[in-house]
Amino acid sequence: MPAAPDPRPLTGEPLALDLLNTRWMREGALQDLLAGTDGLAVWLAANGLDGRFAADAATLRHVLQARDALKKAVDGSLEEGAGPVDAVLGHGRIRATLTTRGPGEEAEFDDASWGPAWLAARNYLELLATAPDRIRGCAHEACILHFFDTSRNGTRRWCSMAACGNRAKASRHYARAKDA
């Protein structure tokens, strides 16, 4: 049975940030896609992981642990998040391979239910190695979404210009009009 549609306002971010974005605000209320295994199935499908990993209670528990660890690292500090992220990374490894196309790498896990959590934590390390200053939270005060800034000049501020960016511009306009 195919997974339900993804209800999140921001999708398509790198895996680590997409995992953080399984929590979002809607009309002042916190939404959580990972409140159960049905939401986990949606998240796995959205990231092309549904064919490799089961949307079961163990996988959900491990993904929630990874999300909490990533939140500490991204919204807190590397100092605060290092231990929890390392704990997730301790459940897998990269094995070097030689394929018919040349050298490769393959992820291996202690237990397959750690796979999605480990892949998200590993992706966070890749983002840190690529451009740590481009891992950002949305600048809108009521938004808790995260994104990887791929803009040419690195000045993106909003998870979505159509949503949060527009709300901020409308608020500024309203304030100027009110003062005038």
Description:
There is one protein chain. With 180 residues, the protein is an alpha+beta fold. Helices cover 46% and strands 17% of the residues. It has six helices and six strands, in the order H-E-E-H-H-H-E-E-H-E-E-H. Strand 1 and strand 2 form a beta hairpin.
Please write the string of helix (H) and strand (E) elements.
HEEHHHEEHEEH
Beta fraction: 15-25%
| Main beta-sheet annotation | 2 strands, antiparallel
Q: Mean pLDDT score, rounded?
A: 92
Give me the Rg, rounded.
Answer: 18 Å
* Uncertain segments: none
Would you report the number of β strands?
A: 6
- Shape descriptor reads globular
> Number of helix segments?
6
Brief summary of the model shown:
With 180 residues, the protein is an alpha+beta fold. Helices cover 46% and strands 17% of the residues. It has helices at residues 15-20, 37-46, 57-76, 78-89, 115-130, 161-179; strands spanning 23-26, 29-32, 92-99, 102-109, 135-137, 146-148.
SSE layout and pairing:
Layout: H1 15-20, E1 23-26, E2 29-32, H2 37-46, H3 57-76, H4 78-89, E3 92-99, E4 102-109, H5 115-130, E5 135-137, E6 146-148, H6 161-179
Antiparallel strand pairs: 1-2, 3-4, 5-6
Keywords:
alpha+beta, 6 strands, 180 residues, two-stranded antiparallel ribbon
